[in-house]
DNA sequence: GTTAGACTTTAAGTCAACTTCAAACAATTA
DNA sequence: TAATTGTTTGAAGTTGACTTAAAGTCTAAC
């Protein structure tokens, strides 16, 4: 039972409010619309309005975007979505491959964090004398078994 | 005891080889040099050459870069590095703040991965009938206690 | 009813981080 | 020695993702 079926009202959000709700700006939303990523409705007088479904969609889209998907890749997903349930397998495959790539990227980021931590430790060791003046960072990494 | 002290030879790498070693391109290396991120040496005839120390530096720089640091921010770090050990505290502070920001960003990425996983599960559930036709993704997330 | 602020459009501008180009010089290979 | 490949420079071009501008229309508050 959704809010809709409960009271028959559907919230309409104008672009400014919707922008605030999603953390985007109005120009960005018009840009996304031009790129086909979101399709707001129009009131009689020509003003855009967005609904709660659009809020959910944009939130999910922003998650996809933060995995590294480009506007062009998102566009493909949106097109499939518009074609209906028949494209669910395609969408599923796309999301799985996005996940694959994303997890690899996160592994790299984890490694970068390790190196960053090591460098901070190494500097700290230099500062408090825990690490000898002559020990370079490369050797330090090697001793920690942290390649690169 | 370093390789240097062991045999007195120091490897010299020309820009193409160095590019391959670091995963960058020659133009990118020239661009980084112009921005002050790396200072190769020059042989008598004017050709750039890089050393193992430069390899280590670029590798570290790329880790910093993948935490989200911009060329401009890296430039600041490089300047401090050139000023000698007196700036170690500054560099340490900078790296710690970079780490702070980076860890927050990784938390966000973790969350995006969660949502992506949920969406994949949801689609899979739709496909194999495990999730009812009428259950939307937003409700599914709510049931999983995964906000947004 | 007037006015400030939000909205509409199309088009041009911005930004970071490269990438490509052109023309001349250096090094390697046949 | 000739040809090919690599390097040099400065400057211009590219890309993705917005952002800003300009000029007009709509809405809400007073």
Oligomer: homodimer
Question: What would CATH call the class of the largest domain in chain A?
Answer: Mainly Alpha
What share of residues are in beta strands of chain A? under 5%
Low-confidence stretches of chain A: 1-5
The gist of it:
Chain A is mostly helical and 148 residues long. Chain A folds into two domains: 1-82, Multidrug-efflux Transporter Regulator, Chain: A, Domain 2 (Orthogonal Bundle), CATH 1.10.1660; 85-148. Chain A is 66% helix and 3% strand.
Structure description:
2 copies of one chain form a homodimer. Chain A is mainly alpha-helical. Chain A folds into 2 domains: 1-82, Multidrug-efflux Transporter Regulator, Chain: A, Domain 2; 85-148. Chain A is 66% helix and 3% strand. Chain A is built from 7 helices and 2 strands. Chain A has helices at residues 3-7, 15-22, 26-34, 52-66, 71-82, 88-128, 137-144, and strands spanning 41-42, 48-49. The first copy, chain A, has a two-stranded antiparallel sheet. The radius of gyration of chain A is 24 Å and the shape is elongated. The N and C termini of chain A lie far apart (55 Å). Chain A binds chain B through residues 2, 56, 59-60, 63-64, 66-67, 85, 88-89, 91-92, 95-96, 98-99, 102-103, 106, 108-109, 111-113, 115-117, 119-120, 123-124, 126-127, 136-138, 148, and chain B through 2, 56, 59-60, 63-64, 66-67, 85, 88-89, 91-92, 95-96, 98-99, 102-103, 106, 108-109, 111-113, 115-117, 119-120, 123-124, 126-127, 136-138, 148. Chain A binds a DNA duplex (30 and 30 nucleotides) through helix 3.
